[in-house]
Amino acid sequence: MTSQTSSNISSQLLQSIQAKLARGAIGASSMRGAGSKGVVEAVRTSLAKVSLNDFGTADASAFRDALDAATEDIVQGLPKQARHWGLARKGLNIFLRDCLYTVYLREPFSLHRGERLFEVPLDSITGKRLYEESGGRLPRWASVRGLNMNLSDRFQAEASGLADKRRIARVHLDAIWWGERLDESKG
Question: Disulfide: which of 35, 80, 106, 153 matches 111 by Cβ 3.0-4.6 Å?
Answer without folding.
Answer: 106
